[in-house]
Every structure is written in structure tokens, then in C-alpha cells.
Amino acid sequence: MSLTLYDKLVDAHKVCDLPDGDMLIYVDFHIMNEYTSPQAFSGLDTKDLTVWRPEAHLAVVDHVNATRSSEPHDAASKLLIDNLEANCTKQGIAFYGLGDPRQGIEHVIVPEQGLVAPGMLIACGDSHTTTYGAFGALGFGIGTSEVEHVLATQTLRYKRMKTMRVTVDGDIALGGTAKDIIMKVVQVVGAGGANGYAVEFAGSAISNLDMAGRMTVCNMAVELGARAALIAADDVTAAALQGHPHSGQFEFIGENWASDEAAVFDKEFTITGAEIVPLITWGTSPDQSVPITARVPSGSDYVSPKDKAALGRALQYMGLSEGQSAQSIEIDTAFIGSCTNSRIEDLREAAKILEGRHVATGVEAIVVPGSAMTRLKAEAEGLRAIFEAAGFEWRPEAGCSMCLAMNDDIAMDGERVASSTNRNFEGRQGRGARTHLMSPAMVAAAAVTGHLADVRDFTRKTSK
Ligand SMILES: CC(C)[C@H](C(=O)O)[C@@H](O)C(=O)O
Ligand code: SF4
What region holds the Aconitase/3-isopropylmalate dehydratase large subunit alpha/beta/alpha domain (predicted)? Predict the structure, then answer.
């Protein structure tokens, strides 16, 4: 029988069926952060349980920590960080704390350490665990009670999802990036359009991406509502598995971690590569995006009163007018970071725009490399010098930072941010803060012009 990659992965990890129709699945690797794990450890203590396989877990600090210094910025974050360390020491779990050379955003450091391989099942108390689908692994976010369950038993109760395939075929347009691919997919399928589905990304525009690009696509698939994202493992994946500190720790030999050719999906979407142009979000949902050359929608673009009202609400929060051109939107802040776009490849793309240019007057620009290793690599390549010469603040520590208002990087009420992150909900970067999602190169273009700008104008200028 022909199987999808998703079904192969689920079958390979199924321990048994449960009487209510769910199943029990085995978790190869589990990642924890300081934010979603404390109650899970307390649960273990209360029940006098220990961690069954400490070597199959990793704990990292990334959400609440400051990135200006390796010292916690307040007592509350210090408590969360210290608790995680104490819990891990007690249970014999690896802990990458502040100041550790392996520290960084969970979804950046796991691939960097070589802890993901095709065919694995990875769980983490964080929704963007879908990132590992880039390697042909099944990664998904879990809740705190599930964290406790996986610590104690290495298994989880699981319900098989339906399957969706999104095919993006053909070369993407000039200036388009992996971020634009996934933003376009979210626009077409809709935020929540993949609720209950595991989404596989296929087509030449996907297989042409490097691993960083594939991770960006799978990372943001959760904004579709998908609880799993997958890309077939291929030669690019195989090459990416080599040369990391833990390469070879997890190996799944003898399986073809790709969907069978005749596999049937419950739902299919097809997008033409040429439609992938540089995009920006204008609203408060990740599917509210337009090409940078276009205008913010007007009421007349919508038929239903519900859609018109949603437009009005989003525009009011964002402080924009109907039909305003995307490039007329002036920004206060430029932020390059997050598990979506803070890898070395992202920093290189932004640096290409910034080289020989300067951040516009009045714009605050921040770059937070996704991990300590990424930062050192970027510094060795001369990227830090480019960012700093351009007027960007180069953060010395890694973390989620301004991706969400959970640490000391909080945007102010009304502050408008060009952001390489993945979520633009009301209040995401701070109460009343206005987020525009885009690729890191587009953030760099916005930083130097002071308004949302077309990255293609820069590539044309520099190539003459
Ligand atoms: C705080 C955490 C639970 C959350 C997530 O699950 O994704 C965060 O990382 C996010 O990006 O919103
Ligand atoms: S960088 Fe942002 S999206 Fe990623 S884990 Fe941190 S808060 Fe979540």
C-alpha cells in the first residue's frame, strides 16, 4: 500500500492502539524550555516518578532570558531558569543554560547540535516544533501535562491527523525567499486552514531550498494550524546531518523517509513558484499579507460584512488606512531574530542588503543570532561588523527576544516593527505593538529606508 511520509512516521512510532481509538506513540527525543516545563517536573515529584530515559531529553533556556547579557534581567526569569537547571540536574537531563556555548533558541540549536535525523519523532512544549519536519522527522508541540507524560514514559497519547500536501512548483520570483513561500502558503490555505492536518510540502521550489529555508517553511506551518509539517528527506538532508557535535546519535537507516509516489492525501493545494514574491503582513493574522509592491486591502475588496469588519479591526490596531501602499508604511523598529529566521543563512541574506548602507534615522535595529554558535560563526565571517557598521545592535546572547513579549525586549504601545518572526497577533511583541512579518532581507531593507521596502530595489542597485 502506498503511504504518505506522515503515516510512515506515525506507524514507525506506534507502541499500541488505545481502547478509545487514540494510540500510544514513542518519542525519540524531547526538548524542554524554561517556560513550559516547571509544572511537569512538579507533577513528577508529586507522583514520586523519575525520568525514564534522561538521555532522550534536552533542556534549553530561550524564552524569558535577556539577550543583552547572560545574567537574567529580573527575579521571575531567574527563578524559571534556576528551576529548570535544578530539575535537570536532579533528573540527569542535559541543560544548555545561559553562557553555555551550545545555548540558543531550541529550534535553532537542535539541528545545529545534530540531534535531529530523518524518521525521528520529536516532541517539545512549543508549537514551532514543526520545524524538524524539514529533516523528514515528525515534530510537534505538546502541552505541560504531556511533557510530564513523556518525561516519565517516553510515550504520548496521540491521535492520527489527516494529511494535506502543498506543492510549490517552479522557480520562485526574484527576491522571494523561503519565508515568502510559507507566508504565501499561509495566505492561500489560511491561518487555521490546516487545523487537524499534517502538512507535507513538496514540489521543486521546496526541494530547491537549503535546510535553513526548509526549516523556515516547516516552522511557520504551525500558523496554518498544522500540528505537523514535513518535507521528504533527500541528499540535501543527508548532507546536513554531517559534522555536528551529536551527528549519528540518532540514525534511522533503511527507510525511505518520503511519501510513496502513489500516496493519496486528504487535501491538496498547488502554488506556482512564480507567484512567490516578497511579501509583508499588514494585519494581525499571519495570512493577512500582500506583495510589497501592493496596497493594504480596502473594504471594497471584501464581500462579506464579517470580512469587512475584520479588515477594519486589523487596520485600526495596526494604525493603517485602507488602500495605503505597503511601501508607505514607516517603521520604528527592525528586528532580525527568532526560530524562523535567525540562522547564519538568514544573517547572511540581511547582511547583503546592509553592507555599505546605514539604518535610517529614528529606526532602532536589533539582530539576535539564534544561538551562541551562530553568533560566533557570524562574527568570524565578518557579519557582525557589517550589521554594526550599518547601525544594528548586535546582541551578545541568544534567545526568543522580541519574537514575543516574554522577556525584556518588549515593543511599546503603537511601536511598529518590521520583524523576521512568525506571529503578528495583537500584543505579540508588546501591548499595542504593531508587527509586520517579512523575510530577514526585507527587514534589512525596511531598516535602511525607514519604511517597508522592496528588497529587489536593493539587489538591482548593488548589482550594477
Ligand atoms: C511560549 C511558547 C509556549 C510558545 C509556543 O508554543 O509557540 C512560543 O514559543 C510562541 O512562539 O508563541
Ligand atoms: S523564537 Fe518565537 S516562535 Fe520561536 S520558540 Fe521563541 S517565541 Fe516561539
Answer: 7-450
